[in-house]
Amino acid sequence: MAEKNRKWVLKSRPRGLVERGNFEWKEEPLPAIGDGEFLVRNLWLSCDPTQRGWMERDTYVPAVGIGEVMRSVSAGQVVESKHPGFRAGDLVSGAFGWQDYAVSDGGGLVPPMKTPAGVDLATALSLFGITGLTAYFGLLDVGAPKPGDTIVVSGAAGSTGSFAAQIGKIKGARVVGIAGGAKKCAWLTHELGLDAAIDYRSENVAQRIRELCPKGVDVYFDNVGGEILDAVLAKLARGARIVLCGAISGYNDFEHMSGPRNYINLIIYSASMRGFLVFDFVSRFGEAIADLGSWVKAGKIKDQLDVMEGLENAPEALRRLFTGENLGKQLVKIADPSRA
Amino acid sequence: MAEKNRKWVLKSRPRGLVERGNFEWKEEPLPAIGDGEFLVRNLWLSCDPTQRGWMERDTYVPAVGIGEVMRSVSAGQVVESKHPGFRAGDLVSGAFGWQDYAVSDGGGLVPPMKTPAGVDLATALSLFGITGLTAYFGLLDVGAPKPGDTIVVSGAAGSTGSFAAQIGKIKGARVVGIAGGAKKCAWLTHELGLDAAIDYRSENVAQRIRELCPKGVDVYFDNVGGEILDAVLAKLARGARIVLCGAISGYNDFEHMSGPRNYINLIIYSASMRGFLVFDFVSRFGEAIADLGSWVKAGKIKDQLDVMEGLENAPEALRRLFTGENLGKQLVKIADPSRA
Q1: Among A144, A236, A335, B90, which is most exposed with the fewest C-beta within 10 angstroms?
Q2: CATH number of A130-279: 3.40.50.720, 3.40.109.10, 3.80.10.10, 3.40.50.2000?
Q3: ipTM metric
Q4: What part of A 290-329 touches B (C-beta under 8 Å)?
C-alpha cells in the first residue's frame, strides 16, 4: 500500500480546452476511516465529457469546488473497511475522484456498484458502467428505434456512441456513425459493422446525411450538438426522435454555445428532442446489465478501451476527449489490484 | 351572388413583416365547376401565423407559388354543387384561399369540415377548427399536464395560446400566460382566469418566470420561440415537456432565426421538446370537438374573436398577428351567408 495519497485538486476553472494547469498535484497522508466507512484504492479512472462541465459550473450536480479533489467515476478495491456491507478485497465503482485513495460510506457508488466476479474493472467502468447504461437507455428507451429505422450516432467512435451504434445494429436498424478522421470511420464500418460512417473533419456532414439517409433520420443519438445537430435536424423523418446525450462541441466555450436553429423542423416533422440522465432508469439497471452481458458473450458488442497509464496523466487523458484522440472508452490506469 | 371573383394572389415573398405589396388584387369571372366539384362562397377567412411561412418557403406544405391565390383556411357556403356529398347551402371549412369563390372537389376540407347546426362559422374557424384542435392536442397529448403542474403559455392572448391556457386551467394546472402589453395581461388574468400573466414588452421574462414558477415549469406551450423559449429553458422542472406549436418571433426573419441555446438544459432536467401537427391526431378530432363543445356550454372556455371586415383588408389582418395587435382569433369577414 502506498504511504501517501496522491491527488489532483481543481485549481482553476477551464477556459477552452482543459489544461494541466487547471489542476494542482498534492500528496497527503492516507485518510483515516470512521465507523461505517471504508477506504478504496483507486485502480482505474473513467474519463467522461461531462467532467468538463463539473469543472466549470453547476449542472445536474454542483460544480467541483476550487481546491477540491477532481471529481470522476473510478473503480477500485476496498483496502480497509469499518462498513458492514464492504470488506477488504471488494471491487467497487464510485465517484472517488482523481486520487489514489478515497473514503466512502457507500453513498457515492455508481453501477455496477460492486463488480461481479469475472468482470474486469476496466469493463465495469465502460460497458457495464455509466457509459454502457447511458447508451442502452438513451438509445432504446429515449430513441425507441424500430427494426429498419435509420439511426445516426454522433461521437460514434467514443465510448457511449460506439455502444449506442452497436445496440442499434443489434435491434435491426440501419446505423450511420459520425466520427472524426478516416481511421475512426474505418473502425466503425469494418470493426463495429455500421452501415456507413461520416468523417466530420473531411466531409460535408449535412450533404452526406442527405445522401445516406434519403428517407430521413428516424433516431439521432447526439453526443456533440452544434452544427452536426443542425445538419441532422435538416433531414428528419416524420416522427423522428432526437436523443440528447451530450453536446461536447460546445463544452469548451459554454458561454457562446449556440442553439440548434433548425429546431423548428421538430414542428414540421412532428419530431421530438429529449434529454435524459442515466439515473432516471436506476430501477432497470439490472435488466440492462443482463442484456449487455449477453450481447458481449454472443460477440455482438465490442468494448474498445483506450488506456493511459498513471494518475499523473489524468489531465491529459481527460483532454483527449476534446481533441478527439481517443478511440472508445478513455481510461486512466492507476494501479493493479492487490492479490489479497 | 357577386358577378366576379375578387382574389389576392401572392406577388412577392415577404422580407420582414408581411406587406400589402406582397399581394396583388385581381378580379376575375366566377370559376365554373365540373362533375364532382362544388363552388364555395367564402364568408370568413382565418388568419394564422403559419401563413407567413407558406408565403416564403416549403414547410410541411409547399410554398404558395407566385401568382397563385394566397392560401388560407376559410369558412363558406356551398352555392352550387355537382358533388354528391355537398349541396347548396352547406357550410364548409377548407383551404379555400383569399378569394370570394373557390372550386373544391371536397379534398381540401379541414375540421370541422361541414359546420354542425348551431355553430356559427366564425367559431368553426376558431374553437372548433384547426386553432382549437391544435391547442387541445398540443396541450393535452404533447404536454400531458398533471393536476397541480405549472404550465406556461406564450402567445397566450392569441387564439391557440388562449385556448391552451384555458384547457390547462380546466385540467387543474396552475397557468402562467405570456403576452404583449398590460391590456392583454389583464384580460388573461381577469377574463380567462389564469393564475398570472407576464408582459414581455415591459417585464424581464426570465426573472418573472423564476419568481412565478419557483419549482420550475412542467409544461411550456410555445407559440413564439426566441428569447422567451430560452427563458423557460432556464427554469425547467425535472421531466418538463415543451410543446412546440410555433415560433412566431422568428417568422419575419427566418434566415437569421437563432436556436434555443439553453436547449442543453433538456439533458440536465430530463426534459423534452416536441413538435406536432394537428393532423397527427385526425382520428381523434371528434373526441376533441365534443370536449371543447362541452366546455363552451359549461362556460369554462371563452372564444375571443378579433374581426376585420372586408376581403380587401386581408393583408392588414394577417399582419396584425405579427405586430401583436390581435386579441384572440384574428378573422376577416367577407360576406354574410345567403338566406337560401
Answers
A1: A144
A2: 3.40.50.720
A3: 0.93
A4: none
